[in-house]
Amino acid sequence: MVNAMSRETVMRQYIDTVRGSYDRILIDCQPSLGMLPVNALAAADSTIIPVQAQYPHQGIG
């Protein structure tokens, strides 16, 4: 797929063919900028980006 034309839209083209059969399509992928996440972002109507909540560090004074 490295040399494919419009390689970042391959997933969107496939999803468009099956979109009518589903209410929601969830695409879960690793946090990187490889071809899978780029295709997923290009195919998405919206995104959810999870983050880890942390309390602020309080030093001993």
What can you see in these coordinates?
- The structure is a single chain.
- The protein contains two helices and no strands.
- The longest helix has 9 residues, at 10-18.
- The mean pLDDT is 85.
- The chain has helices spanning 10-18, 35-43.
- Helix 1 (10-18) crosses helix 2 (35-43).
- The radius of gyration is 17 Å and the shape is elongated.
- It has 61 residues and is mainly alpha-helical.
- The N and C termini lie far apart (56 Å).
- Helices cover 30% and strands 0% of the residues.
- The protein has a domain at 7-43.
Q: pLDDT average, as an integer?
A: 85
The helix/strand class is mainly alpha
Oligomer: single chain
Please indicate the percent range of residues in DSSP E strands (runs of 2 or more): under 5%
* Uncertain regions spanning at least 5 consecutive residues: none
Global morphology = elongated
Question: In whole angstroms, how far apart are the ends?
Answer: 56 Å
The total count of strands amounts to 0
